[in-house]
Specification:
Layout (H helix, E strand, L loop, with lengths): L4 H12 L3 E4 L5 E8 L11 E3 L9 E4 L5 E3 L15 E2 L8 H4 L1 H8 L12 E3 L11 E13 L3 E3 L14 E7 L7 E6 L7 E3 L3 E2 L2 H8 L6
Length: 219
């Protein structure tokens, strides 16, 4: 499917908010996001944890001489504080066995530290950062895009085949009135088949659309 400019702008907005985009040949695209099954918080496949204790990767080096942490993006291979070249991607948990057992520490540091890509002592995210659940899933939607100038319109105006709609088919309306900023409307399409549609809630930023589709429970 070749996306129109309006569709591309929405697709890029989803991508910038951590949502995956999949196109198809039926006039809409599919979005998916990996979330915690329990609370809905984002689940990051590129986030790593210490295999030994579960501590999150801080993406920092620690100097073996002065023990200061520093960014792994630094250009020099020497410590910023003492000029030592013994920098390792260690687990920041001082109680982790990788730090308390000298033999294990030596072996792991020989591979660059727990979070070095060659060490084998890190693993992908295993638990939700918010609620601690170990279960996650992909939540998907079918997304249709239309650019309109009014909040009220008929379903038939959308040129969408109602027989192809799923429970998770949503319409995002780009509403641009004269002398007004761009705003977004969001409706679940199966609720309005063969009906007049009036958008009652308008969002002024795209993050609000993502938050509505992927809410996070704080309870």
């Amino acid at each position: 499917m070749t996306m129109k400019i309006e569709e591309k702008s929405i697709a890029y907005a989803f991508i910038s908010n951590g949502v995956y985009i999949y196109s198809n040949e039926k006039g809409h695209f599919i979005i998916a996001k990996l979330i915690c099954l329990e609370c809905g918080e984002s689940w990051y496949m590129n986030l790593t944890e210490c295999f030994l204790c579960g501590t999150i990767n801080p993406y920092l080096y620690r100097c073996s001489s002065c023990h200061n942490f520093q960014s792994i993006t630094k250009s020099s291979n020497k410590c910023n504080y003492c000029e030592s070249s013994e920098l390792f991607m260690v687990c920041p948990n001082e109680d982790c066995i990788s730090n308390t057992d000298k033999q294990i520490l030596s072996e792991i540091n020989g591979k660059g530290g727990v979070f070095n890509k060659d060490s084998g002592f890190s693993t992908a995210q295993q638990y939700c950062l918010i609620c601690g659940s170990k279960y996650h899933r992909y939540k998907t939607y079918d997304i249709y895009i239309r650019s309109l100038k009014q909040e009220e319109f008929n379903f038939s105006d959308l040129n969408i085949n109602p027989k192809e709609l799923t429970e998770n088919a949503y319409l995002i309306v780009r509403l641009k009135k004269k002398n007004s900023p761009l705003r977004y409307g969001l409706i679940r399409l199966i609720d309005f088949i063969d009906k007049k549609i009036h958008i009652t809630t308008l969002y002024e930023n795209f993050q609000s659309i993502v938050n509505h589709l992927y809410p996070v429970s704080t309870s």
